[in-house]
Each structure stands twice: as C-alpha cells, then as structure tokens.
Design brief:
Radius of gyration: 14 Å
Structural class: alpha/beta
Largest sheet: 5 strands, mixed
Strand order of the largest sheet: 1-2-4-6-7
Helix content: 25-40%
Shape: globular
Number of strands: 7
Mean pLDDT: 89
Low-confidence stretches: 1-8
Number of helices: 4
Distance between the termini: 47 Å
Length: 120
C-alpha cells in the first residue's frame, strides 16, 4: 500500500496595497480544507486593519470538491465587515465549474487572471 501524500499548504501570503494573495494547493478536499481555513483566516486576521480584498488563487488547483466550496464560503462569511474575498480560477478548470454549479459564484467574484483579481 503506497502512502498518499497530502497536498502542500498554500503559499505564503503576498501583500499588495489593501489586498492579500494566497495561492492554494493543487487539491482541496476533506484532507486539508480545515487546515486551509485556519491558515487563510490567520493571514486575514494578521492584516485585519488594512485588508480590503482577500484573493484566493485557485489557478493551480486541479481538484476541488464540496469541501473547497465550504472553504471559500466560510472564508467569505468570516472576514471582517468591509473585507471581501475574490477567486482566481481557470475558465475551464474544476474549481470554477464547482463554484458555478453550487451557486457560490453569485456571492464570490471569480476572475480569469491574477491581474484582474488584484485590480478588482
């Protein structure tokens, strides 16, 4: 029986004026969603006074199930008032399709590129 490696955690947060960017791992599922939520909220809290937009970069994410949807929604609901979450996801990628099918895309803007998300 071979060991299944856990996906790596997100990259270190990158600060932009009023924005924080987190690139998420290639897979988001039950194995890592809770840990990701803790890491994302920690990064947001550390910048609470100056955070206007949290950018979750899913462009490298190849698999995301309902736990990924829950993760994005929980982040959205737990950000301080006045802060928002936006997502970067490939136009034909699994994360974008999952966000569309679940309806979360109505509440969370999804952009094709990092530049678009950072400019929003």
């Amino acid at each position: 029986m071979s060991a299944v490696p856990f996906p790596p955690p997100p990259t270190e947060p990158r600060d932009h004026p009023g924005r924080v960017l987190l690139a998420l791992p290639p897979e988001i599922d039950a194995r890592n969603a809770d840990e990701l939520l803790t890491l994302i909220l920690s990064a947001a809290r550390a910048r609470a006074g100056r955070l206007r937009t949290l950018v979750l970069d899913l462009s490298a994410t190849r698999f995301m199930d309902s736990q990924g949807v829950r993760l994005v929604n929980d982040v959205r609901r737990r950000l301080r008032p006045g802060a928002r979450v936006v997502v970067v996801a490939e136009a034909n990628g699994v994360p974008r399709r999952v966000l569309e099918l679940t309806g979360l895309r109505r509440d969370v803007p999804v952009y094709d590129s990092l530049d678009e998300a950072l400019a929003a």
